[in-house]
# Entry
Amino acid sequence: MAWYDEAVFYHIYPLGLLGAPKENTYSGVTHRLNRLDPWIDHIRELGCNALYIGPLFESVGHGYETTDYRKLDSRLGDNKDLEKFVKSCHKKGIRVILDGVFNHTGRDFFAFRDLKENRENSRYRDWYCNVNFYGNNEYNDGFSYDNWGGYNLLVKLNQRNPEVKDYISETIRFWVREFDIDGLRLDAADVLDFDFMKMLRAVASEVKPEFYLLGEVIHGDYSRWVNEGTLHSVTNYVMHKAFYSGHNDHNYFEIAHTQKRLDGMGLNGAGAFRLYNFVDNHDVERIFTKLQNKAHFTPVHILLYTMPGIPSVYYGSEFALEGKKEKYSDASLRPALELNDFKDVLKNNPATKLIAALGKVRRESPELSYGDYKELFLTNRQYAFSRSLNGRNVIVTVNNDDGRYSMTLPAFGQEQYRGALSGEGVSASGGNIEVTVQGNSGEIWIPSGRDPEDGAETAGAVDAGTPEQAGDEAVGAEAVGAEQAGTVDVGDVAAGTVTAGTPEPVIKGVSAEEKVDNNRSYSDGIIAGLQEAIIAIMEKNGPVTEQMRRDVYNNTHHDSLITWIKSFR
# Structure
């Protein structure tokens, strides 16, 4: 068990948050980084215990075209500012990782400047890949070279060159020595040389116990990068996509299927590596923009904090900010913010309150960090799973439908459960618990050894019923009566109106035509007939892929198939 196994990350893009000029003129130092000091307490209040911040080092523009690896970007301050900032984070119990941009440099980097000046005679010509002195580029260098993503602004380093390896290794040692950082997020890790990454892992083991290596990887078999020899984790882009499209399409099968794929990579369970989960970041649109139904902000974030992996929140998204990707510009994804403009958000902003509540639940429930994942219930619009550790099971239920829904789930031998967000208690009967999930919401059910009416057991809970309005849209949970032992009471949303007050009691069932006895035996013919009916409806609605067919035929649960058919509208 390492610190990162229990981490909840906050992600800052500092050049954007601090409103730095888009272009670096190298004309002097502006001490902007110290304006992040108030954010440290904010990060802690959200329940985050780790910070990913970057890029930080001298560059000419967005930060990933590095000019000097060993100098804080002069638009942000100087090295003393970074040293003080990391120290302040550590005092508050927050680990700090930053960007390691080792796949490429900027054109102002000393080695590339020498290459431009001395051409064939440059001692750094082999620091870069495929330098061709018979070619040219848009800068009229009189030579060409490999780059990242088609951008000649980003000159690809030759990671097999021993001098490059030594330079990067010493840079990491410098960062640990000077700033006491706790790890790196490796930019463009999906195109890094694997032997180079093995070298990075060796340096990580040398410089600091539990020094964390997180790689930016989009697609592929993540276990190629995440293993004992290379990286500790990678960015979970496949689940990122499933999080928002699984809600926009009312298709929890996509999320569940994605998790099964990740399980197949050995990325689940107490001894497994943990992927870095996120719903947005500095390169993709804000989750609040991507969601067609803004009320889905609640179940999306419940899943972010409870699915296997390490959750991360991108700065500003805890306020339910919009951010749309624009052609040739990511500026709207990386806005300048002043924390003073978001005073009292933990009292008044339902999105912020939800994130803080989930951070608290995560901190108090080791099952969510280490527990085995098991799917319990699945339809297009409802989803339940457990996270089990040492015989203790936490149950998660989410609902992307507008109406409430009741589920009968295994109690795993536990007599009582408490809703970590609502404080509601449920008792087992016949080895099961029956819970009702409010529309566009969810709950995290914690085994309870006490009477659920006991105030000491429910103090500090947050009722995550249907979300309240943030601006004009429903996004989180309405908080009232926060003075009552820290309990946050959630109201209900109906047609855009919010009624705050005591949550409605758990409904102990659904109508006879909606509920099927899970213990009843059905013939294979009935199951096959239901599967064929679902396929037929799907074919009427549009093209059906082979994967969609497999998802249907892999579901052999009568109750789930019946509900699936009813979910088509």
Notes: The longest helix spans residues 162-179. The radius of gyration is 25 Å. The CA atoms of residues 415 and 428 lie 5 Å apart. Confidence is low (pLDDT under 50) at residues 450-523.
